[in-house]
Amino acid sequence: MSVRAHVWVSGRVHGVFFRATTRRVAKRFGLTGWVKNLRDGRVEAIFEGPREKVDEMIKFCHEGPPTAIIKNVEVKWEDPTGTFDDFDIAF
User: Fold this and answer.
1) Which of 9, 20, 51, 75 could disulfide-pair with 43, CB 3.0 to 4.6 Å?
2) Residue 83: is its pLDDT beyond 90?
């Protein structure tokens, strides 16, 4: 059964390969969705896939790549839409 998590990550998450690393990890987990930088300095992402893999992705968001400094991760659970074919970096 698929789930959908809408996630916002704050801290030092721009310019530290957060989006690229998130994309690589999400693809490895077989998730679909997207990740993007926000103008307010946060990163926003949507992850869809099996609950255990989405949970692992959220765990990754609490850690981020080695140069990131994570201050907060906000998660909103939503109904999955199944509209994504892949996991992309959005602009």
Assistant:
1) 9
2) yes
Q: What are 19-51's pLDDT values in tens digits?
A: 999 999 999 999 999 999 999 999 999 999 999
Which of 4, 19, 23, 42 is flagged as catalytic? Answer: 19
pTM for this model (two decimals): 0.96
Catalytic residue among 37, 42, 51, 72: 37
Average pLDDT of the chain to the nearest whole number:
97
The yes-or-no answer on residue 37 being catalytic is yes
Would you call 4 a catalytic residue per the annotation? no
- SS3 string, the chain, reads CEEEEEEEEEEECCCCCHHHHHHHHHHHCCCEEEEEECCCCCEEEEEEEEHHHHHHHHHHHHHCCCCCEEEEEEEEEECCCCCCCCEEECC
CATH code for the domain in which residue 72 is found: 3.30.70.100
Indicate the number of domains in the chain.
Answer: 1
